[in-house]
């Protein structure tokens, strides 16, 4: 179902707020050398710390772990689940230490009461990343995030300023984490369907009225997805995401708004889905990659 985006990561953060806050870390283990992107402080520095806060930055999860030395003695365990990663909460963490290898198990956090979580990653491409830092801004992907689209300061004017003069397609703008945080391939398709706009429309071409429509679509689509995901168990979030989508990953199925057939076209390193009747005046978008191959 693709990468967890803002609503799913927010739901995971919410789940961890309920289950992990106030608990003491026994140990943290990396399933491979590649998964841990930092080396100072070491993972052993987490042992004995209390999880006091769980937050989300774009698609990053951030667990604040406070030590005994008082104010300023904070560490942040930050993770990005990438395309195929997931978090599995466990009440039955094995005593045996993790054996690094080819298993999908990327990382494990064990709490002193025997609960904890595994971060798993399916597939052969291993992109899941874990960082242990003193400040979340020490994580490069966090430091360069654009504004949070559900924050109060993400106004119509703020979006207008983001789009102005940008001669790139709106689909690419929406899923660029440096421009707006937390929206990926799935929710950018959903936002553009809700806004009834072509994914290929140039950002610089938006009129003030169109900016307002897009802003409304971003906020409504994400807010509804966050509401649907809230309280859903970590294990069930992927299914919840899938059932809430209208066009993303629905190629060949009827658009729930107009009944036209949802179509797919290649975009950057993947593909996007859209409804021609709702979004492109009934005209299918030309697949540039395909026509280039046919030349
Ligand atoms: Zn439609």
What can you tell me about this protein's structure?
The chain is an alpha+beta fold. Helix content is 28%, strand content 21%. The chain contains 9 helices and 10 strands. Strands 1-6-7-5 form a 4-stranded antiparallel β-sheet, with no helix packed on it. It has a 4-stranded antiparallel β-sheet with strand order 2-3-4-8, with helices on one face. A two-stranded antiparallel sheet has the order 9-10. It is elongated and about 60 Å long. The two termini are 33 Å apart. The mean pLDDT is 92. The structure holds zinc ion (ZN). Zinc ion (ZN) binds next to helix 8.
Which keywords apply here?
binds zinc ion, four-stranded antiparallel beta sheet, alpha+beta, 295 residues, single chain
| Category from helices, strands and their pairing | alpha+beta
Helix proportion = 25-40%
| Cα Rg | 21 Å
Secondary-structure element order, N to C: HEEEEEEEEHHHHHHEEHH
- The largest beta-sheet arranges its strands as 1-6-7-5
Distance between the termini: 33 Å
Number of separate helices: 9
Summarize the structure.
This protein has 295 residues and is of the alpha+beta class. The chain is 28% helix and 21% strand.
């Amino acid at each position: 179902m693709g990468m967890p985006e803002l609503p799913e990561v927010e739901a995971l953060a919410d789940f961890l707020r309920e289950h992990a806050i106030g608990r003491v870390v026994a140990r943290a283990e990396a399933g491979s050398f590649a998964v841990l992107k930092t080396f100072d402080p070491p993972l052993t520095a987490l042992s004995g710390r209390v999880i006091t806060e769980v937050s989300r930055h774009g698609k990053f999860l951030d667990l604040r772990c406070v030590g005994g030395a008082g104010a300023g003695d904070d560490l942040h365990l930050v993770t990005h689940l990438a395309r195929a990663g997931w978090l599995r909460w466990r009440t039955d963490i094995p005593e045996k230490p993790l054996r690094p290898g080819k298993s999908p198990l990327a990382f494990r956090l064990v709490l002193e009461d025997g609960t904890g979580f595994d971060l798993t990653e399916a597939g052969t491409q291993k992109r899941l990343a874990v960082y242990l830092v003193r400040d979340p801004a020490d994580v490069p992907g966090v430091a360069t995030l654009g504004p949070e689209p559900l924050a109060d300061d993400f106004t119509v004017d703020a979006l207008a300023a983001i789009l102005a003069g940008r001669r790139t397609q709106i689909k690419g703008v929406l899923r660029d984490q440096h421009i707006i945080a937390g929206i990926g391939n799935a929710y950018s398709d959903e936002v553009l369907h809700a806004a009834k706009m072509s994914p290929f429309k140039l950002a610089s071409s938006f009129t003030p009225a169109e900016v307002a429509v897009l802003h409304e679509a971003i906020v409504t689509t994400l807010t509804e997805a966050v509401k649907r995901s809230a309280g859903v168990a970590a294990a069930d979030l992927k299914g919840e995401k899938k059932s809430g989508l209208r066009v993303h990953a629905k190629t060949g199925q009827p658009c729930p708004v107009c009944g036209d057939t949802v179509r797919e076209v290649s975009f950057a390193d993947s593909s996007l889905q859209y409804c021609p009747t709702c979004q492109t005046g009934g005209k299918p978008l030309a697949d540039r990659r395909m026509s280039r191959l046919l030349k």
